[in-house]
Amino acid sequence: MKFTEKQKIWYNNSNVRINITDGSVRSGKTWGSLIKWIKYIGTAPPGDLIMTGKTDGSLERNCIKPMEMLLGSQLKRKKTEKLLNLWGRNIYTFGANDERAEGKIRGMTCAGSFGDELTLWSQSYFEQLLNRMSVEGAQFFGSTNTDSPYHWLKINYIDRIDDLDLYRLKMLIEDNTFLPLSYINSLKKEKTGLWYKRDILGLWVLAAGAVYEFFTDSEPYVLSSKNLPIAKRKVIGIDYGTNNPCAFGMFGINMYSKPKIWLEKEWGWDSKLKGKQCTDREYAIYLKEFIGNEKISEIIIDPSALSFKNEIIQDKDIKAIVNDADNSVLDGIRNVSTLWKNGDFSICSSCKETQKEAMSYVWDEKYQKKGEDKPKKQYDHYMDYIRYVIQTLFFSGRVDYNKLNKM
């Protein structure tokens, strides 16, 4: 088995109670941590073990499947019980993305634990996990991309390395010598601003200013209708609101074109400006008018809009499949940025409100010192349906964007 030099350093030195590797994307952090974790399973003190990811699904994709590929039939699974067994050792698996997660492990005692995507965990879960590691010699191995310098992981643990039994190693994309240089250079070009500093340079920096700071109302971010490709299918994204604005966007998709996905039509209703709130039935009528004679394969809707979703499903004139959006905010923003910057997403020049929002969409300063990255809840409705559609179609496991990008 081959290792990068940084992975060798990690493997040889991550021997204390808390071991954390952080840095840029694609730097080999997760793989290096998994290899060390597998070794630890074979040598850990007696007792149960724990593996944790942001969600059950992300842990499956990022860690369990690679372990299965590496270990084959040695790794046994009971999916219904969220339980793995390797060499007679029980390994319980959990998701840790909200404050309720820490209740899942209360009362447990473990002899070691593994963590993926640490900055996306709730602080209470991480603290509870360390509490559970009461077996003599228990160790934790975790990896993460960087985040705000005020994030609890940075302030309470990484910055206190001299006070804690903690080993920390920073890995950068250039440390992953198995990646083609052409891929590294392409990724660097795709990232801008905040995402370049975090995903490429591996810095713990604040989100500040415009969310899409690279955006201008010109090519390649905005295209005239005559320069749009021919769509192979069309979908609609919906950000729902009654007192707040409601917005529809119609997207064209052609995986073999540049861009691959584009916004070609928009519609919005602001009840405060219009002086009238719409019912779900009225919105459904507007939606049918918006669709017109177009053949829509799918409607991707704000997951909180249950009543409007049901209204659409019950309307026999609307033939499209209706699905809840993946509402992963930061991942969604990062992925929209990648497609937009890479020329795989554009908006039609006729979509004026979307253009205005793209230039007015900013990070919320009041959350920064809490260690949270949140866009300000204003001028975000058109931005939300863009995020819903791109995140759901390209980054929720339905297709592999990295493969599509090679078409």
Tags for this entry?
single chain; 407 residues; alpha/beta; Nucleotidyltransferase, domain 5; 2 domains; 8-stranded mixed β-sheet; 7-stranded mixed β-sheet; 14 helices; 15 strands; 34% helix
Short summary of the structure?
The chain is of the alpha/beta class.
How many distinct folded domains? 2
Per CATH, which architecture of the largest domain? 2-Layer Sandwich
Mean pLDDT: 92
CATH third-level topology of the largest domain:
Nucleotidyltransferase, domain 5
- Strands of the widest sheet, in order across it, are 3-4-5-2-6-7-1-8
| CATH top level assignment of the largest domain | Alpha Beta
Q: Number of helix segments?
A: 14
State the order of secondary-structure elements, H for helix, E for strand: HEHEHEEEEHEHEHHEEEEHHEHEHEHHH
End-to-end CA span: 31 Å
Spans with pLDDT under 50 lasting ≥5 residues?
A: none
Main beta-sheet annotation: 8 strands, mixed
Total beta-strand segments: 15
Radius of gyration: 23 Å
The secondary-structure class comes to alpha/beta
Task: Describe the protein's architecture and organization.
Strand 11 and strand 12 form a beta hairpin. This protein has two domains: 5-178, P-loop containing nucleotide triphosphate hydrolases (Rossmann fold); 222-404, 2-Layer Sandwich (Nucleotidyltransferase, domain 5), CATH 3.30.420. The strands form two sheets. The protein has an eight-stranded mixed sheet, sandwiched between helices. Strands 9-15-12-11-10-13-14 form a seven-stranded mixed sheet, with helices on both faces. The protein has helices spanning 5-13, 29-43, 56-71, 123-132, 152-156, 181-190, 193-200, 271-274, 280-291, 306-314, 329-341, 352-360, 381-394, 401-404, and strands at 18-23, 48-53, 75-78, 83-86, 89-95, 110-116, 139-145, 166-171, 222-223, 233-239, 246-253, 261-269, 298-301, 321-324, 345-348. It has 14 helices and 15 strands. The mean pLDDT is 92. The protein has 407 residues and is an alpha/beta fold.
